[in-house]
Amino acid sequence: MNILCFSDRCCLSEDEASKVLDVVSTLLTFLRRHSTKIDNAIHTAMRDLEAARNAMYRVVGGIRALRSRFKNLRSFDELTDVESVVNTVVNVLNRLVEVRNLIQRVRDEAESSGLSDVVQYVDSHVPMLDGVIIKASLIGLRIALNLPKVSRDDSGKLASAIGTAFFASLLSLHEDVFRKYVDGCLD
């Protein structure tokens, strides 16, 4: 049972989350190159990227935790720690949205500082991040619908996290890269 798949072509892996981590690290490198222009906006952006990198490490850890939790299960009925699974799914989704928001804020700071290379890099990679987010939200929904005995509180947490992630990712709906992610999930 591969729980971290929504369909055959729509799976969430640690490798995919690591690609987002690579984007954040590359952005940090770009900003460090520009940090000689001592500018509060650049320093703020660098702090935001450090926070985004830390959040992505936690996303990778969350994906790893979900994979190991479901590794030996034959069905969801064998799951005994529903609340823990809910919290992990919610944390992964919330952190992905946080990373998206931080990267967008970095883009805005870079634009106001005249760093066109940073702006272009962000603009070219956000659709991929949104593709990962929509995958994660669809997989989160699949997990949520299969969990045995979800409490009302857990339902609320899942609804909020899945809804926020899903709608945040749709901001890249106009991008072909994002549409390919969605097509792969909804075949």
SSE pattern, N- to C-terminal? EEHHHHHH
**Physical arrangement of strands within the biggest beta sheet:** 1-2
Instruction: Give the class-level CATH name.
Output: Mainly Alpha
Assembly type of the chains comes to single chain
Distance between the termini: 19 Å
User: Count the strands?
Assistant: 2
Say what the CATH topology is: Dbl Homology Domain, Chain A
Task: State the major sheet.
Answer: 2 strands, antiparallel
CATH architecture: Up-down Bundle
Calculate Rg over CA atoms. Answer: 17 Å
Compact overview of the structure:
The chain has 187 residues and is mainly alpha-helical. It has six helices and two strands. It has helices at 14-34, 40-70, 82-112, 116-146, 152-169, 176-185, and strands at 5-7, 10-11.
Walk me through what this model shows.
It is elongated and about 55 Å long. The chain is mainly α. A two-stranded antiparallel sheet has the order 1-2. It has helices at about 15-35, 40-70, 80-110, 115-145, 150-170, 175-185; strands at about 5, 10. A hairpin with a 2-residue loop joins strand 1 (about 5) and strand 2 (about 10). Helices cover about 75% and strands about 5% of the residues. It has a single domain, classed as Up-down Bundle (Dbl Homology Domain, Chain A).
